[in-house]
Amino acid sequence: MSVESVSAQGFARESLAVLRHVIESAQGDVAAAADLVAECVRAEGVVQAFGTGHSQALVLELAGRAGGLVPTNRLSIADLVLYGGEDPAVLDDPLLERRDGVAARLYELAAPNPQDLFVVISNSGVNSVIVEMALHAKEHGHRVLALTSLAHTRAVPAAHPSGRKLADIADVVLDNAAPRGDCLLELPGGGSVCALSTLTGVMLVQMTVAEAAGRLLAAGERPPVYVSANVPGGFEGNLELEKKYAGRIRRTAS
């Protein structure tokens, strides 16, 4: 790749090419993912979304945002402090996401219902807490939808003691098509710049939500969808929709 390609236009051109590829190649997987989401909503379940690091951006894209489904819940390592009574200092550990038992504790704090769907998001798909969450969800009878980079996960060794990766566990896998290491533009002399997974991940999340909403509409059911809280009546209307899932979804200031 030339020096000239490391530019705004270079990133736009290369990332749009990957987005076009994702839109075309992921249609079948998006349809399968939408089936899981629609089945969950129809069964009065909650979509439990979990990720660490920058994957939390995609959790926020799915859980609790305008235009998104109401029965969605954000799971976070910070829940250990917010809901689990842990000392805030525990979050200073940069290796916390590799500690055994963290995912099991987060699952316990969420207290999911059997019909809840778990959406587990990780670009690498190998972090211990990610794999543990997927395994724990499957062991408790939940369906698991993964959003990951197959190129990255296939290029690195498993980190969990089971030897498994997120893509090995999930019922449906959405491939964000990000390269190993996530960055898209190669730098002269080695290295690369500009991460891609958030961009393609957002596309896959919203395609799945749209397809799931379409399935509910086709069945004569109105999808429970958030309105922006910044339009008149939006906040009050959202509170009314949330009553059905009281105690099962968390909505904090963050």
UniProtKB/TrEMBL annotation:
It holds the Pfam family SIS_2. InterPro entries: RpiR-like_SIS (IPR035472), SIS_dom (IPR001347), SIS_dom_sf (IPR046348), SIS_GmhA/DiaA_subfam (IPR050099). It comes from the Bacteria. Residues 37-223 form the SIS domain. This is Phosphosugar-binding protein.
